[in-house]
Every structure is written in structure tokens, then in C-alpha cells.
Amino acid sequence: MRNLWGPLSPLGLGIAALVLLADQAHKAWMLYVYDIGAKGTVALAPFFDLVLVWNQGVSYGLLAQRTELGRWGLILFAVAAAIALVFWLARTTSPLAAAGIGLIIGGAVGNAVDRMVYGAVADFFSLHAFGFEWYVFNIADTAIVAGVIGLLYESLFRGHKKVSNPSKM
Question: Positive or negative, the Cα torsion across 52, 58, 61, 66?
């Protein structure tokens, strides 16, 4: 149990829970209250639309799975990744890294819940400009990207010890 809990685990898992709650509440609202499926594409700005896309793959629709075995494979992959991230979270000493890991866990679990409940991930946000269309995404995807950015920032700019006198190397 010691390997599953560290000083920043409450921070990371709290963020994961908030992401999961926000993601699933937003998806439920978009699907059942706003009924985006019946509305089609809703333009909110010249560069931003709401639209319903069922993603059967991972990012950008890669590795699309159209079978039950493939769908459950992606679910198990997300669960395994979340468990591995919980172990990493237990060892981290940086609040930024803990927050990044929490964002990724919450996003991964949110998308895994979609796969279990709907058979695919519900995506809604479409950004486009100058003839270029970004992939359609959701709150869970945004959290995963923000978490990765936070971890990269931590690794590149804050995670390395500074050498005070390089000539002593």
C-alpha cells in the first residue's frame, strides 16, 4: 500500500476526480440536455464549433477499434495506464508533476468510462481556421494534453538540478 500513496497523492487524485466529474457531467449535458446529436454542427465562433463525433480510437482517431475485443483492449489499456500513473504519483515530490499526473489520470478514466458506457468516446469541440481543422476533442482530452504539457515543463525546466559551477564537472 505504501507504493500507492505519497504526500502529493491527495492533490493528484483530487484533480483526477474533478476532471472525471467535469468531463462526465459535460458529456451527459451535451448528449441528453443540449442534445447535440440532434442539432448537428453548432457554430459558436468563426473558428470554434460544437459537434458530436464518436471516436472509436485514441487521439486523432488512431487505432480505431470496431470490435468488442478492440474496445475492451483500449479500456484495459487506459485502466493500466491510470494504475501506473497512481504509482508514479505516489513517488512524485513536485506539486506541478502531481497536478499533471492527476489531469492525465482523470482524462484517461473519463474516456474509458465513455468506452464502457457508449462503446466510443464522445467528442464535441471542433477548432478550425484558415482551412485547417484540428481534431474534435472533449474535456478529458484537454486535461490529458494539459497534464502532458505540465509534466514536460516540469521535466525540461524545473526537474533538473542546476550545477552552480560547471567548471567543477
Answer: negative
CA atoms within 13 A on the CB side of 20: 17
The whole-angstrom separation of Cα 152 and Cα 157 is: 8
21: its cell numbers: 466529474
C-alpha cell at 109: 478514466
Q: Which of 23, 49, 114, 123 is catalytic?
A: 123
Q: 49 an active-site residue?
A: no
35 is catalytic: no
pLDDT tens track for 41-62: 999 999 999 999 999 876 555 5
- Rounded Cα distance between 73 and 62, Å, is 14
Q: What are the domain boundaries of the chain?
A: 2-158
pTM over 0.70: yes
